[in-house]
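Figure-free illustration: sequence to structure, shown twice.
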Amino acid sequence: MRLRATTTTAALLMAAVGLSAPAAHAARTPAAPYDFNGDGRVDLAIGAPAATVAGKARAGAVSVVYGGKSGLRTATRTLLTQNTAGVPGTAETGDAFGTAVASADLNKDGYADLLVGAPGEDADGDTDGGTVVIVWGTKSGLSGARTLPDLFNTEVDRYGQALAVGDLDRDGDLDVAVGSNGRLGLAFVEGPIAKSGALRSGSGSGFPSRYSSSYGVTALTAGPVTGSGTTALVVHGRTTGAAHTAVTDLVSDTTIGNYTDWLQALPAGYASAIGDIDKDGYADIAIGNDRETSADPAGAKGGRVTVVYGGPDGRSTSRAPLVLTQDTPGVPNTSETGDRFGSAVFLGDVNGDGYADLAVGAAGENYGAGAVTVLYGSKSGLKTSGATFVHQDTAGVPDRSEKKDQFGARVVLADHSGDKRAELTVGGPGENSGDGTVWSLRGSATGPTGTGAIAFGPSTTGISTAGTPGYGSVLNG
């Protein structure tokens, strides 16, 4: 069935294009997201949308580092730009290739595929129209690509500034949600999506009037919040008016044609993560808002994170959200102006107990040096006791904390080693005067450990340090 969409409160189904019969499914078990070579380990996609490529400033690049027995292996990697053989387009000034990334095994061949947004691409004569590229997973890693069509290019700009993947229409095939700005802030491209041939259909949606069309949909997170098999979407944007503060909603069922009538308002924030913290079968949502109240009334001194527990209809109606700041009893450190606690959030199982744990970046901590707090899941929900506080001066973590490093601007909890415990991977795009660095700490029964931690910058994976590439400003979604 087609995905339906609305502009405000009235349903509007946009014209479907490229209808074709579904492709036959491959026999292989679909790979988990970001397992590009099908070895059972999660790989890491690192976006550097401000990277210079062939002399073109801010053309953008993505480095992919593959997982291995000991975690991430920088010797095994793939560099992707729009000048890479097989990748559509050409690297041009301001394309910002790598602004958003997402992954899923779209064609169910046993290898996860990578979607990359380049919202600054001038497409079909439209300045900053944007584009999305799919790069295909194979046994030897990523190779070959196709463009994901912008079905409503006259209605949007900056197509690809946000990406998410999931079975949004319950037909067993994976669909792609794309955030843009303009009249239709959210577009869907319906699966199955194969390496060649026509795609089936798509739809576009505007959002209620409180969303600013000049910002559009700025971030997307997908996951099984309701436990029904439906993929829910957490949608981030900015409000209209002079302040342009954050607005966040849950689309709990995208199969409803007028789903914007059924939006569930969430605590406002700029980043989110989905995972089952208490193993009750309903995924929970963590929302980060790193702004001070002077910049966003929904923020807090030093920033805040709100955990909304999931239930059968989306957000739980029986459990109050958990609000976290660095002044919350048990949470390490103290809330200070500019800490940016909540600059990034990610849910994954770092200690291997089956409960999703929460990593929270505080990129402004200690005059912008940055830090990360990990809080642990349990049967009763997220625990505020026993948290782990990590920064560059933590024993074993390479380098040292310096102003403006922004350690914690992005965080990932994913099992790169295959030991059933997630590594904590951290982006610090301000390191080395804006070159940027990525750190990865192994998981253990007690949480992330500095023992065996690694760090690497853009040069290690083939990205130019001309200008300020901001390596690590984008990591696995």
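We now fold a second protein in the same way, so the two outputs can be compared directly.
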Amino acid sequence: MAGFLDNFRWPECIDWGERRNTIAAVVAGVFFFSGWWVIIDASLVYPTNEEMNHAFHTCGVMSTIAFFMINAVSNGQVRGDSYSEGCFGRNGARIWLFVGFMVMFGSLIASMWILFGAYVVPKVNVYPGLAVFFQNALIFFSSLVYKFGRTEELWG
């Protein structure tokens, strides 16, 4: 089972090289939009603070900030190909990317903590907690698709 996709080839009639940036941007946009759509729906269905604490929106805001932090640095800047000037250079770009990923992971872990700590363990309606978690998970996947889906190494 370890190499069942080793012989799989993308169809030769599709030229991924010209469209990979567009495809990655559209898929990332759909994930990002879906994440915010889920949390807006939960906020409208459960408008009071007792049903869904308004402080739980902080995770989604931090994930959005981390999304912009991660995608503000190009892959060439991280490798050191296209960014050598400035105060920090390549190391600064790597630190910025690392901090962005740490904020993103922290938001994802906090959303799981909210899901289980505020909704699953007390055995109340779980939908608001699931909405907070799925918002952060979809923004996380959006960031990964947009950051790494545009590189040529992954597309062949």
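Summary for the second example: DSSP finds six helices and no strands in the chain.
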